[in-house]
Model the fold of this input.
Amino acid sequence: MSRTIDDVVSPTQTNTIPADISGQMLDLDEDDDFEVFSKDSTLADGSMFNASMQTSPGSMVNQCKFEEDEDGDSKDIFITVDNPESHVTAIETFITYRVLTKTTRSEFDNSEYEVRRRYQDFHWLKGKLEEAHSTLIVHPLPEKFVVKGMVERFNGDFIETRRKALHKFLNRIADHPILSCSEDFKVFLSAQAWELTTYKKQGPGFLSRMGETVRAVANSVRGVKNRPEEFTAIQEYVEDFSNKISSLDKVTQRIVKEQKEYLEELKEYGPTYTLWSGSEEELAEQLKGVAGCIERCCQETEEQVGHLSDTLVPVLHEYVLCAETLKAVLRRRDNIQAEFEAKNEALATKKVDRDAESSDLGFVWGSLLGKNPEEARHQRQERLDGEIEELKVEIDKLEDRVEWANNALKGDWVRWQRSMRGDLKSAFLSTAEKNVDYYEKCLAVWETFLLSQRTEPSEETDRDNTS
Amino acid sequence: MMADSGPEEIAVIGNTDLTSAELENNIKNTMVEIEKWTSLLRKMEISVGEAEKRTGKNSVNMQEIYTVYLIETRPVDAVTEGLIPAPDSLWRRYSEFELLRNYLLVTYPFVVVAPLPEKRAEIVWHKLSADNMDPDFVERRRVGLENFLLRLASHPVLCNDKIFYIFLTEEKGWKEMVYETGFQAKADSRLKAMNAAFRVKNPDKRFTELKHYSDELQTVVSQLLRVQARVADRLYGVYKVHGNYGRVFSEWSAIEKEMGDGLQSAGHHMDAYAASVDDILEEEEHYADQLKEYLFYTEALRAVCRKHELTQFELEMAAQDLTSKKQQKEELVTGTVRTFSLKGMTSKLFGQETAEQREAKLQVLEQQIEEGEEAVKEKNTESNEFVKTAWVDIERFKDQKDRDLKEALISYAIMQISRCKKGIQVWTNAKECFNKM
Done:
């Protein structure tokens, strides 16, 4: 099974993964994530890493005890996305982000890169990665357009939210054992703007890409016949998960909305106490005190809503997009299997054809062309045999492709579940912590006020006693 | 790292819970104040225990459903002797309370008479309907009526009123008794006077200020109550939406293996959080009711100011009348006509009067002047009496208001503290559950 993955999956990719990459794989030993891979002895021959990495899918799927912390000393590539800038040309206005890379990987010529990229470029990268690794789970990009309301594309909050999502997108790729080795990824991080444009223009032409799409569509229409049980289970889970996470997204946005409306009313509430204090003598002090408390609680509420919007909302939204990505990945896997099944059926048909008695039609043609029947049948047999052999070669390739696709998906599925758990757990934890903090701060505000009130009654009773 | 520490480790600035000793002390202090003045409360425990629905025919002979309230009274002595006899009780409906109050307003115009709770729910809260039959509304009204009776019973003047006493003790025939006092006639003239337009030249400055104050208080408390209702409404929304987390977490936990338990229990806490807002809103309503009582008090304040203006006006009118009579006498005596009068003109045209005629007129005038001086003296005394007694009650009212509202603000702070503590508890628990995910 020593084929390079490229031959099977994307024959049109111009750059093969260099052999010295396997050297890099040994660096990843320290990362707990890759325990399984690096212990595989077939890696030592340095031929390729993908298929051999996936040869133990069973053990990979059963290995659910991965450590949660992927970061740490094993990370050898650090990316930041920051510094959004607006560019105005004659045709359009767009935003670019600075992408800063620091790496010790040897396939990079330098150890540091600074480039500027726009959303289009990220979108291109995602497309390339999905094309090359159709059954790996690529973390979603923030959406191209925001449909909700009158959100300005160049609004500060929107840009910041997008920047964070783009940062996460690149870092997820950097953390991925296979995706981070992609040549497209490397070019994205290191090439200057004009170099990237040139690079983008290479690659499969429009028509061949169309061909792939048409085939994919045809296969999806056809449907897969013998989907393995585990993928059906994953699909069912993804359906449910998609529903749940969408609900949570909506609920959270509703909470943000309600909380903001509460804040608006609260802002009007404090001043009414201040207004009242203007008419009172004895009570003025207390009324102003209450007004002050309410105002401070307003500030805390504002902070709490901000935290919710910055921390929980984006994460939930990301996973809504993830669910869609997962559905697409499952579909693509199905298509790969459908293509294989189709070819198998074609082979069966051809075999039946060959083994059948020579038809009258063949005989007639043969005699028309002046061939004698024996020769005609023999030629026909030979032709079919040839076709059958070709088909078998294709089917072998497709079978490899299916197995590789399945293993890739299974491996990534485990990774994804772990990330999902980590991301969502941390987002909810952070929200709960912030809420506790919010209530603690408000508590302190009111307790301080109450304390200041408690000292006064003792003064009053003293007055009473002396009068 | 406050977020990591458990609730016990939160720095408590002061113990904000009222200890039972403090509560008792508060009650004792209030009781001491009351006992200084009142005889009635010392003798009697008064409470409005229940409410019931009755049907009957109204004044236009149509069927109606109305609510009656049970008034229970019991002599204080009986309890202190270790025996707890059953209280005496009778039923009264809202209109009878209104009648009692109107009687008191008319009979004691110098008193700032406690207001009744709302007849109809004015500011409608989220879960409260404007329906007078709604059990929550009826309950709040019951509390308001009890408060009203306690206010009366603790008032140094009103507590001794016979009609009030009978209101509490005899169900039948009370209404007739009230009407027999003839207060209705006084009530009508009072109403007329209240609505009449007149200008007072020299009102007591303090009453003018008080009138302004009561107008300001009404405006500002109305606004406060309106905003408070909106705030409570929004708060309700925030809490209730969290209930959706409960539902979705629960459903989601069913498809997860490792996260299932954490999600499930977190969901329960979200449900608890959503449910907790009902109690919170009830407390906010109670606070609003305390403010509302003082909102309604402003009407009583204005009434007393108005009465002062009326008496002052009558005094000024009497004085003015006297002055003009005296002037007329002077003119008659000296023969000079300083003021224009038709009589003067006609006498100019048709000749002077005879000495006898003048003498007769003089006598009438002198009689009128004597009467006038009596009237002025009376009105003056009346006015001074009124100012004196009214101002005593106003000072009493001011002290009561300052005390009550201060307590209300403190209880508001305690309410917020309690809400914050509940919030801390729920989210700390939720955090523990998320940790298990």
About this structure: Chain A touches chain B through 56 residues (CB under 8 Å). Residues 80 and 100 of chain A are 5 Å apart (CA to CA). DSSP finds 14 helices and three strands in chain A.
